[in-house]
Amino acid sequence: MGQIALEGMEFFAFHGYYDEEQKIGNKYGVDLYIRTNLHAAGTSDKLDETVNYEVLYRLVAEEMLAPARLLEHLGHRILDRILARFPHVQTVKVCVSKFNPPLGGICHRARVTLTRKRPALQP
């Protein structure tokens, strides 16, 4: 097993509980951690033996385009897309951050972290 990480992805998007947030937009950050078997890619040096970083980024970017009220919902959508696209991925962890959330005070970012593990195959 090994880990693939895409850290520090940034997007301007229109998520938020309040209608104003969905109209004005804000800056968001996404960190993604994938656990999968990297042995085949390590020995073959072939892209089709691993998880393509560009595809991961594109899946996240597509989800960032569709407004969500909650970061939790957005994170779950990202997990769903990745597990559906890559059946050999065992675990996905996603951290979604909203920079400068409207809390009435100083807060650099609000963040949710979600992890989903693929169910083990039944014998």
Automatic annotation (TrEMBL):
Its EC number is 4.1.2.25. It holds the Pfam family FolB. GO terms for molecular function: dihydroneopterin aldolase activity. It catalyses: 7,8-dihydroneopterin = 6-hydroxymethyl-7,8-dihydropterin + glycolaldehyde. NCBIfam families: folB (TIGR00525), folB_dom (TIGR00526). Belongs to the DHNA family. This is 7,8-dihydroneopterin aldolase. It comes from Hymenobacter elongatus.
